Amino acid sequence: MEYRVSICGEDKLPEVEFRVLDANKNVLYSNKDANYAKTWDFKLQSSQQLKIVVKVNTFNKPGDTPASGCVAIMFDSKSKNNILQTIIACKYNIVETGLRPVYTCF
């Protein structure tokens, strides 16, 4: 079956990094290696548990005011007639905490 992961963040946020990991925590894909691409299309031969890890560097150097905003994640499956169906949609709010937040969506 064919799938698509899509990530987008507010324009005021820095690049949004996402990684797809398998159940053994092996990295299957990192958009950091693809110039921070916002989508990844892939095929799976069988059902399996995947983890999507999203990272937003909210500030560039110590003392900077952290960025805040929303990041959305969509996980779609493609049917035989090439229609994408959304399986999961998540939206995270990144708040100004001074920490480097890392969010996980299952």
How would you describe this structure in keywords?
disordered C terminus, 106 residues, elongated, 4-stranded antiparallel sheet
Walkthrough of the structure:
With 106 residues, the protein is mostly beta strands. It has one domain (2-105). Helices cover 0% and strands 51% of the residues. The strands form 2 sheets. A 4-stranded antiparallel sheet has the order 4-1-6-7, with no helix packed on it. A 4-stranded antiparallel sheet has the order 3-2-5-8, with no helix packed on it. The protein is elongated. The two termini are 19 Å apart. Mean pLDDT is 76; it is low at 96-106.
Say what oligomer this is: single chain
Strand order of the largest sheet: 4-1-6-7
Number of domains: 1
Helicity level = under 10%
Largest sheet: 4 strands, antiparallel
- List SSEs in N-to-C order: EEEEEEEE
Query: What is the percentage of strand-forming residues?
Result: over 45%
Radius of gyration: 15 Å
Number of strands: 8
Topology:
Elements: E1 2-9, E2 16-21, E3 27-30, E4 39-43, E5 51-56, E6 69-78, E7 84-94, E8 102-105
Antiparallel strand pairs: 1-4, 1-6, 2-3, 2-5, 5-8, 6-7
